[in-house]
Structure formats: C-alpha cells, structure tokens
Amino acid sequence: MAGTKADKKKRPSHSLYLLLLALVIILFISGRTSLVITLVLIFISIIVSLYRYFIPFDIGLEFLTFTTVVLSIGVSPFVGFIAAIIIILFSHIATQNICVFIPIKIVAYGAIAFLSLAMKGMAITHVGIILTVIKIIILGMVTFMLNPGRVMTDIPSNVLNLLINIYFFTAFGGMVLGLLD
Hints:
By secondary structure, this protein is mostly helical. The chain has one domain (13-180). Helix content is 80%, strand content 0%. The chain is built from 9 helices and no strands.
C-alpha cells in the first residue's frame, strides 16, 4: 500500500536533503583546515543546542552565535550563514520543535553573518559582543511583536547569553580564527 506510515518512515525527509545540500556547499567553499574546523563548530553547536531538550528552562547557553560569527569572519559570511541554517534546522528537527520562529531565527543569524563582514577589521571579542547584542535585540523585538508577555521572562536568559558569548569570544575567538587561516 503506497502512502502508508511505514512507507513514509523509510523515505528521508526534505529537511535532510536540504541539510546535506548545505554541507556539500560548505565542502566546496571551505579549504581543508577550514572544513574540519567548520564541521567541529557545527557539531559542537548542535550538541549544545540540544541541551534545551533535556533541561526544562533556558539558561542562555548557545554556541550558534559564536559559530556563525567566527565562520563568517574566518571563512566567509555565506559559510557562516549556511552553518547557522544547518544548526538551527537540525536542532529544531531533532527536538521536534517546529515553529514560526525558525525562519525569523534564520533571518537574524543571516543578518549577523553578513554584518560581520563590515566588522572584519575589529577584534573578534568586540565583534562577538556587538553581534550578540544585535541578535538579542532583533529576536527580542520579534518576540515582543509575537508574544509581548514573554519578553520579560527572556531577560535573564538573554543576559546570561551575552555573558556566555563574551566568554566564548574572549577565550576562544582568536584561537579559532587563527585555526581558520
């Protein structure tokens, strides 16, 4: 019987094909060393993003901003953006958290990927802090438009997110950029 649930489970979803296509694009754009670092950053970002599946509250921990900014500066904004799309889609699909916020999140991370190009001459710590704040503002404004009551509950996790990203960019930003050269 065509179209049964068993048949549908055997076929990969369209999302899987899109993720594989994005990885192939990164393969062609990145050099060998950049490719390894890119894949490691994507893997770490996905693992970190899955913590929300196991912890019932948001502590502001995410590695996506760091990965997007570092890859945007170290390789190209396009690679940073594609990596962000892969991480966002994979983590939302893996946790079965498909919502209206996904395209908004993709646009926000696309904005910081391409804004990083304008800040390429600045220190990575400064770029990371500025773009983390911009991301928090963009997502906060959208959250306010969609669900005004949630903005106040997001403030503690946003402050923690900023502090965590300051640490990531200060401690690891320069080192990872050096590996991407």
